């Protein structure tokens, strides 16, 4: 039997994911998380509601399955991707070198952030979530909006702001976007209900 | 005394960073790499390492499955699960295998935890 989550359930889920981002923050030490998550419905998705700048983004994508099914995207502007890579690899690496490692490095960074959020959900709800390996690509803002709008079985979108600070860099803003179906089975609704805030 | 360590991770970046931290602490250790569980099992059949770090989410079998097979066949290898996937289920699975789960990111501190485990500190 499928159920629709209430606003209160979604708020609980947002808090759990927020805690997960905090877990990633603690792990990195160099990263400061400062998130104000908010939910959107699929019909309300556009550049403005996602609060995206027009331009290109580095996008890490990972799917997860279990009692909860969905997809997570981690986005950083192309400019911030370059800053992150320069901070990770130092001034010794030239533009071509950074280009060569971009997919690997950003994929791993996104993997850590996504898994921290998923692990927090799994532990809070006492479930096991299995996830795919990460996929990294650069997309335009328009393509990102289209990808979300065209994602199948997705109704609800959680947008979380993440701010990185690597070494002495300025804050590098990004987004963690979770795409979820609006219908959940009774078991997961009960688990969300029972989870501690 | 020189030791041999196998780093199993589908992220080349993670393999490089783990290797760099290990080399910094133990320059004489020999480092081998594998990009997934199947490759690791095949490598170990030919050359037995003293230590092994194992990621979880990789193409093919899960790292925890590979670790179970490796430890069943070679119980003397000291192995740690080294992953961003820190769900309690996987931590419990690592515990049942008689090992530990070290959380990514790869830093001097996290690699230090693995080294402490390897060397019995």
> Stretches of chain A where pLDDT falls below 50 for ≥5 residues?
29-33
Q: How far is it from the N-terminal to the C-terminal residue of chain A, by CA?
A: 25 Å
Number of strands of chain B: 5
Radius of gyration of chain A: 17 Å
| Order of neighbouring strands in the sheet with most strands of chain B | 2-1-3-4-5
Count all strands of chain A and give the number: 10
Largest interface: A-B, 24 and 19 residues
What is the string of SSEs of chain A from the N terminus onward?
EHEEEEHHEEHEEEH
Poorly predicted ranges of chain B: none
**Strand percent estimate of chain B:** 15-25%
The succession of helices and strands of chain B, N to C, reads: EHEHEHEHEH
Structural class of chain B: alpha/beta
User: What's the helical proportion of residues of chain A?
Assistant: 40-55%
Determine the mean pLDDT of chain A: 83
Please give the largest β-sheet of chain A.
8 strands, antiparallel
| Residues in β-strands, percent of chain A | 25-35%
Describe it for me?
- The complex is a heterodimer of chains A (about 200) and B (about 120).
- Chain A is an alpha+beta fold and about 200 residues long.
- Chain A is about 45% helix and about 30% strand.
- In chain A, the strands form 2 sheets. In chain A, strands 2, 3, 4, 5, 6, 7, 8 and 9 form an 8-stranded antiparallel sheet that branches. Chain A has a two-stranded antiparallel sheet with strand order 1-10.
- In chain A, β4 and β5 form a beta hairpin.
- About 5% of the residues of chain A have low confidence.
- Chain B is α/β, with parallel strands linked by helices.
- Helix content of chain B is about 45%, strand content about 20%.
- Chain B has 5 helices and 5 strands.
- In chain B, strands 2-1-3-4-5 form a 5-stranded parallel sheet, with helices on both faces.
- In chain B, β4, α4 and β5 form a beta-alpha-beta unit.
- The mean pLDDT of chain B is about 95.
- At the A-B interface, α1 and α3 of A face α1 of B.
